[in-house]
Structure formats: C-alpha cells, structure tokens
Amino acid sequence: MLYVKAPAKINLTLDVLHKRPDNYHEIEMIMTTVDLSDRIGLKEIPSGIQIESADRFVPNDSRNLAYQAAQLLKDTFHIKSGVLISLDKKIPVAAGLAGGSSDAAATLKGLNRLWKLNLSLDELAELGAKIGSDISFCVYGGTALAKGRGEIIEELPSPPNCWVVLAKPTIGVSTADVYGAFDVTKAEHPNTDQMIQALRDKDYQSMCDHLGNALESVTLKMYPEVAQIKEQMKRFGADAVLMSGSGPTVFGLVQQEARIPRIYNGLRGFCSEVYAVRLVGDREELD
Ligand SMILES: C[C@@](CO)(OP(=O)(O)O)[C@H](O)COP(=O)(O)OP(=O)(O)OC[C@H]1O[C@@H](n2ccc(N)nc2=O)[C@H](O)[C@@H]1O
Ligand SMILES: Nc1ncnc2c1ncn2[C@@H]1O[C@H](COP(=O)(O)OP(=O)(O)O)[C@@H](O)[C@H]1O
C-alpha cells in the first residue's frame, strides 16, 4: 500500500468578483494548508477503481472525488490496471476545508508515483482542475492566491506561525447552494492586497485584521449557528475568527498556546467537531 497525506485548507480571504457566463464565479482567494489530514492508501488491483472508507458520509462510487481523479488518470494515460483507494478520513465532510478536493489531489500525486507517469505538479494541478476548482491548490499545498474559478494558483509566502482552532457545527453545507444564493450587489469584499502584504511582512496582527470572506454572510443567513460559533470563539480568546470557504467550519487564529485549552474546551461544550492544529503554510514542509 502506498500512503499519501491529504491536508485540509482554510481561506484567509475569499472574494467573489462576479458571476461568469459558465455559471461559475470569478474569485480571488488566499488559501493556506493546515495540519489536519486524511490518509489515502493506494494499492494496485487487476482492474477497476474501488473506494474503501469507514465514513458513512463519503460516497464509495464515482461521486467520490478520489475516484474521479483515478478515472481521469486511467482514461488520459490508457492505464489498464486498477486501484483500490482507501480513505482514512479525519477532515470533516462538506465543511469548507476542501477534504474531498485534497483526497483527489493526493490520489493524483500517489498514482503519479504508483503508475510511474512522471507528471509535474503543474500537470497534475491542470488535470485536477477538470474535476473541481479547489483541487489545483490542493496539489501544491502551502499558501497561495487562487484566481479564476480557483484553479489559477500563485504561490505566496507562508503566514506567521500560529495555532488554528477549527469548529464545525453538525451541518454540512453545499458549496453550489452558497454560490447560488450569493448576491454580488450586497457583497462585502476583503482586501486581498493587504492580506498579501501581511504575509510578505510576516505581520500576525495585520493578517488577523484582514481576514475576510464574501461568502460568509450568505452561509450565516442560512445557518445562524455559524454566527454563534464565531462569537463564542472570540469570547473564549481567539485573536481573529472567520468562516472557511463556503462553510460551515469556523476557524480562529491564536498566537499564544496557553489560550488553546480554554477555547478548545469552551467550544467542545456545544460543538462536536473541534480541532486545534498548526498552519503548514509552506509547500516545502509537506511530504
Ligand atoms: C468555496 C470554496 C473556497 O475554497 O471551497 P469549499 O467551501 O468548497 O471548501 C471553493 O470556491 C469551491 O471549490 P470546489 O468545492 O472545488 O467547487 P467545484 O466542485 O468546482 O464547484 C461546485 C459548485 O460551486 C459553484 N462554484 C464553484 C467555484 C466557483 N469559483 N464558482 C462557483 O460558482 C458552482 O455552482 C459549482 O457547480
Ligand atoms: N473523498 C471525499 N471526501 C469527502 N467528501 C467527498 C469526497 N468525494 C466526494 N465527496 C462529496 O463532496 C461533498 C463536499 O465535500 P468536501 O470536499 O468534504 O467539502 P468542501 O468542498 O466543503 O470542503 C460531500 O458532500 C461529499 O458527498
């Protein structure tokens, strides 16, 4: 079995510029990898694609993004043999943390080795974009500005080191529904340039000050519990809080490790999925 790590991401910023003729939205967002990962196992089998996962929310057929990644490589490079993909899920599903996209990216990277395809990261990212908008970023990991519908990636400096507390209410959010309800005339736009400057300066306070997500108010309206989690996280001592992606996961940035137990335990009181992890904002730190 070949094992590959599939880490989650958070959005430090997410701006939606306009709706495109192809029904996607033109976006500009800054994503960074966090140390909460699924583990993907890949084993060659005589034919076909099989998915194994103990998580009942994860599809085990062609709806699975890891399945689609394997199918795309098989079709593109005329691979006869098959693969068993086992998914050890740690990233909450439909959470705004790109779990499925990261599984697909890890499958592309793992099968590139298993099937000796010799593809570059750029080539894998381009293939990944055919399956989903977030997969290109997940192929590279680290910290990046994503443009277009999310597939145009420019590497950025890693954020100043800190803790990230993640809290997910017991709802899953459909990304398509959130983009569908988005109204560009009412949108709040984060300042992407200032966030890039904060990363260049390694300025923790400025990074906190410039967190922003144009989709947040849409999801908050659908699910008021997300706003409650934001409030609680701030009250328990996080330096800055934001919803990740289309939600519903809320993350809090925390510089002082001593503050983590209070925030973590406080949130565990009314939120079943809470994690305290580190940022892994540098591509080189990934395996
Ligand atoms: C919101 C974000 C932020 O990182 O992530 P998540 O919340 O899913 O983690 C992404 O933009 C999500 O990317 P991803 O989940 O890969 O989306 P896709 O599968 O490509 O698209 C799902 C649906 O979302 C909408 N969509 C997606 C991307 C985009 N730029 N504009 C859109 O309008 C479309 O309706 C599309 O049919
Ligand atoms: N490998 C996978 N892991 C989790 N969900 C997956 C996977 N493949 C497909 N899905 C489907 O994709 C949807 C979005 O899941 P996920 O990628 O975890 O969320 P998000 O896009 O919000 O970060 C889920 O509802 C699930 O049915």
Automatic annotation (TrEMBL):
Signal peptide: none annotated. Pfam families: GHMP_kinases_C, GHMP_kinases_N. Its EC number is 2.7.1.148. The active site is at K9, D134. ATP binds at P92, V93, A94, A95, G96, L97, A98, G99, G100, S101, S102. InterPro entries: GHMP_kinase_C_dom, GHMP_kinase_C_sf, GHMP_kinase_N_dom, IspE, Ribosomal_Su5_D2-typ_SF, Ribsml_uS5_D2-typ_fold_subgr. Keywords: ATP-binding, Isoprene biosynthesis, Kinase, Nucleotide-binding, Transferase. Residues 195-271 form the GHMP kinase C-terminal domain. Residues 64-142 form the GHMP kinase N-terminal domain. SUPFAM superfamilies: GHMP Kinase, C-terminal domain, Ribosomal protein S5 domain 2-like. Coiled coil: none annotated. GO terms for biological process: isopentenyl diphosphate biosynthetic process, methylerythritol 4-phosphate pathway; terpenoid biosynthetic process. Pathway: Isoprenoid biosynthesis; isopentenyl diphosphate biosynthesis via DXP pathway; isopentenyl diphosphate from 1-deoxy-D-xylulose 5-phosphate: step 3/6. GO terms for molecular function: 4-(cytidine 5'-diphospho)-2-C-methyl-D-erythritol kinase activity; ATP binding. It catalyses: 4-CDP-2-C-methyl-D-erythritol + ATP = 4-CDP-2-C-methyl-D-erythritol 2-phosphate + ADP + H(+). Belongs to the GHMP kinase family. IspE subfamily. NCBIfam families: ispE. Catalyzes the phosphorylation of the position 2 hydroxy group of 4-diphosphocytidyl-2C-methyl-D-erythritol. This is 4-diphosphocytidyl-2-C-methyl-D-erythritol kinase. The gene is ispE.
